[in-house]
Write a structure and sequence with these properties.
The complex is a heterodimer of chains A (about 70) and B (about 280). The N and C termini of chain A lie far apart (about 55 Å). Chain A is mainly α and about 70 residues long. Chain A has 3 helices and no strands. Chain A has one domain. With about 280 residues, chain B is an all-alpha fold. In chain B, helix 7 crosses helix 12. Chain B has one domain. The two termini of chain B are about 40 Å apart. Classes of the chains: A mainly alpha (about 70), B mainly alpha (about 280). At the A-B interface, helix 1 and helix 3 of A face helix 3 and helix 4 of B.
Chain lengths: ~70, ~280
C-alpha cells in the first residue's frame, strides 16, 4: 500500500474518530485542572498528572474516582 | 419586640416537601461542583461512540494490527445495527456500571465518617428524605449519562451501519436504566451499612454479578430476578422482546427490591445516627 492511499484512508477516518479524541481531551483537561487545583491528592500529584495524560480515558476516570480526597 | 418576631419566624415549621427540596438541591449542587454532571456523561458518550466505530472498522483494524500472513482474506460480516446497540449495552454494563457505582460508593459513608450525617439529622430532616435525595441524584446522573451515551451510540450506529427503530432503543434504554438503578440502590444501602466506600462499591458490584449470574444460570427458577434486566434490554433492542409472565414478574420484583433496599437503608441510617 502506498503513501497516498494511506493518507486517503486517514482522511476518511478522521471525521469519525475526531469526536472521540475531543471527548478524551475534554476529560483530560477537566481531570488536569482538578488535579492541579486540589490541595491534596491521594498519592503524589506528579504521578497523577502523568497517569491523566498518558492513560487514555482510564487515567482521568481513575483520578476522579480514586485520586481526590474529599475536603 | 422585633427579636420576638424574628424568633417566631425562625421556628415556623417548614413542610416536609420543602425540606426534601432543600436536601435534593444540596445533592444537585454537589453533582455540579464535583463536575460529575459533566465527566460521567462524557465517559458514557465515549463508550457509546467506540462500540459502533470499532465494529465498523474491525476488518481494517485486523488487517493493520493482526499478524496475519500475507494474502489471507478475512470475511467478517458487518453486524446489524441492533447487534451493535446490544454490544454497546454490554459495554455500559461493564465499564459504565463500574464507573457509576464507583462515583457513588461513598455517598453516605463519607458523610457518616466526616460527621455530616449527624449534623444533618439533628435538624428536622428525616433519614428517609436524606436517602431519597441521594437516590434522586443517582437517578438523575445515571439516566442522563445512559441517555447521552446510548443516544450517541444510536446516532453513530445509524450513521455508520444502519438505523435502529426508535421504539426498540427507547424500551431497551428504560430497561437498562432500571438495571443501573438496581446497582445504584444496592450501593446506597451498602454505603449506609459499611464504613468503607471501596467495600460498598465492591459488595454492590458483587451482588449485581450474583443477581445476573443466578438469572442467567437458572432462567427457569430465577429468571424473574432483576439480574435478568440486561438480558431483557438486549432482547428489546433486538426486537425479540415479548410480554411474558417472567418479564412482568421481573419488573414487579425489581420495583419491590428497590423499595426494600431504600427501606432497609432507612432503618440502618436511623440506628447509625444514634451511634455516630
Amino acid at each position: 500500500m502506498n503513501m497516498a492511499e494511506e493518507l486517503g484512508q486517514l482522511k476518511e477516518l478522521l471525521p469519525i474518530i475526531a469526536p472521540i479524541m475531543v471527548l478524551q481531551l475534554i476529560l483530560m483537561v477537566i481531570a488536569l485542572v482538578l488535579c492541579i487545583k486540589s490541595s491534596q491528592t491521594r498519592g503524589p500529584k506528579w504521578v497523577w498528572i502523568l497517569v491523566i495524560i498518558f492513560a487514555n480515558l482510564i487515567g482521568p476516570i481513575a483520578f476522579m474516582v480514586f485520586g481526590r480526597r474529599n475536603e | 419586640m422585633s427579636g420576638l418576631a424574628a424568633s417566631e419566624r425562625s421556628v415556623r415549621p417548614s413542610s416536609g416537601l420543602s425540606r426534601f427540596a432543600a436536601m435534593f438541591g444540596k445533592e444537585l449542587l454537589e453533582l455540579v461542583r464535583s463536575l460529575k454532571l459533566i465527566w460521567v456523561p462524557i465517559v458514557f458518550i465515549a463508550l457509546g461512540i467506540m462500540q459502533p466505530v470499532t465494529s465498523y472498522y474491525m476488518p481494517v483494524i485486523l488487517e493493520k494490527a493482526g499478524n496475519l500472513p500475507d494474502g489471507s482474506v478475512i470475511e467478517i460480516p458487518l453486524p446489524t445495527g441492533a447487534q451493535v446497540m446490544a454490544e454497546t449495552l454490554a459495554q455500559f454494563g461493564s465499564l459504565g456500571a463500574l464507573v457509576i457505582v464507583l462515583v457513588f460508593m461513598g455517598t453516605v459513608s463519607s458523610e457518616r465518617n466526616s460527621g455530616a450525617v449527624s449534623m444533618i439529622l439533628v435538624k428536622p430532616v428525616s433519614p428517609a428524605s436524606y436517602l431519597v435525595s441521594k437516590w434522586g441524584a443517582m437517578l438523575l446522573l445515571s439516566s442522563l449519562s445512559l441517555l447521552a451515551g446510548y443516544g450517541a451510540a444510536w446516532y453513530y450506529t445509524g450513521f455508520l451501519i444502519e438505523a435502529v427503530a426508535f421504539k426498540a432503543v427507547l424500551s431497551s434504554f428504560l430497561l437498562y436504566e432500571l438495571w443501573l438503578l438496581v446497582l445504584l440502590t444496592l450501593t446506597l444501602l451498602l454505603s449506609t451499612a459499611l464504613r468503607s466506600a471501596a467495600g460498598a462499591a465492591f459488595a454492590a458490584l458483587g451482588a449485581g454479578a450474583v443477581l445476573s449470574l443466578l438469572s442467567n444460570l437458572f432462567p427457569k427458577y430465577a429468571g424473574w430476578l432483576p439480574g435478568a434486566l440486561p438480558g431483557f434490554a438486549r432482547q428489546a433492542v433486538m426486537g425479540s422482546l415479548e410480554w411474558s409472565s417472567r418479564f412482568g414478574a421481573c419488573l414487579v420484583a425489581t420495583v419491590m427490591l428497590l423499595a426494600a433496599l431504600v427501606l432497609l437503608a432507612n432503618i440502618l441510617l436511623r440506628r447509625a445516627a444514634a451511634i455516630d
